[in-house]
Design goal:
about 325 residues, alpha/beta, 8-stranded parallel beta sheet, two-stranded antiparallel sheet, 10 helices, globular, oxidoreductase activity, NADP-dependent oxidoreductase domain-containing protein, NADP_OxRdtase_dom
Length: about 325
């Protein structure tokens, strides 16, 4: 199993990265990232909206000073948030992220969502209605992404949470092709059709929420997470692996890269140790059978947005 996947622009992305969503304020982000670097992580999935890029940057700088890594060893992703979809704002926000992280460039810059909010709106304008929505088309946002690429502030550009029709629309107008679409994927939400669609267009899929664990886990009507499945624990015992390692191995074997998140040193160490076993066909069949089309991150509050991505099948 390869530890990196080629992108359509010639660069490579490590197949496993550490997600940083909701790892802020309450936790010591700097030490979490330092530990992850020591554990072997070289791919960090960041975003302006996560409010922790400064801490990520401090950890990177410390490990470079310690001669543990060089900047070129790392693959750093960040994303432009929904309030900043105007062409000129796209580069402005990337420059802000670079200042926060004390970097000259990122490896990958993504449009976080196809939906846009007004610059004066809240970052997540729940209950504010359509007045909070921007009329900026994500095609304009893509031009801003291309500007960032041309200026050398990012090596690659891509999308997140875009559906098939939105991706094709980007491709029809793009000067530079997106290299990635980052979407929710886990065994209970396999996204096989969208993954195949992206594969046919030489776009890599990056999977967030790979364990099917979200903020509503454990609440009424929320689907049980895959890593609590007794059968997957049984599969893990066959290989002397945890259920989480089985799930990550399975997703990577499908040609995806994955960005699990944890604040636990034990889990962080565990998640990257997935390259020394191969699932037997019957185990893959079981994991395939787990799909229930259970989407966790629905952004349901913004279903009336013109560019809401989840109205169609994929």
């Amino acid at each position: 199993m390869s530890k990196a996947i080629p992108l359509n622009d010639g660069f490579y992305i490590p197949v496993i990265g550490l997600g940083t969503y909701k790892v802020s304020k309450l936790y010591d982000v700097e030490n979490i990232v330092k530990f992850a670097i020591d554990a072997g992580y070289r791919h960090f999935d960041c975003a302006w909206i996560h409010e922790n890029e400064e801490a990520v940057g401090k950890a990177i700088k410390a490990k470079i000073i310690e001669n543990v890594i060089k900047r070129e060893d790392l693959f750093i992703t960040t994303k432009v948030w929904n309030n900043f979809h105007r062409r000129e704002k796209v580069m402005e926000k990337l420059k802000l992220s670079l200042r926060e992280m004390k970097l000259n460039y990122v490896d990958l810059y993504l449009i976080h969502w196809p939906i846009g909010f007004n610059e004066t709106s809240k970052t997540v304008p729940l209950g504010d209605g359509q007045e909070a929505y921007s009329d900026v088309d994500y095609l304009e946002t893509w031009k801003g992404m291309e500007d960032c690429l041309s200026c050398g502030f990012t090596r690659s550009i891509g999308l997140a949470n875009f559906n098939s029709e939105q991706i094709d629309r980007i491709l029809r107008h793009a000067k530079y092709k997106p290299v990635i679409n980052q979407i929710e994927v886990h065994p209970k939400f396999s996204q096989k059709k969208l993954i195949q669609f992206c594969k046919e267009r030489n776009i890599v899929v990056s999977a967030y929420y790979p364990f099917g664990v979200g903020e509503q886990t454990g609440t009424t009507r929320f689907p049980e997470t895959t890593v609590l499945d007794d059968n997957i624990h049984k599969i893990g015992r066959k290989y002397n692996k945890s259920a989480a390692q089985v799930v990550l191995n399975y997703l990577v074997s499908l040609g995806l890269c994955v960005v699990p998140k944890s604040i636990s040193n034990l889990r962080i160490s565990e998640y990257i140790k997935i390259f020394d076993f191969q699932l037997e066909p019957e185990d893959v069949v079981y994991l395939d059978s787990c799909n229930r089309n259970n989407r966790i991150c629905t952004m349901r509050a913004f279903m009336d947005h013109p560019h809401y991505p989840f109205r169609i099948e994929y």
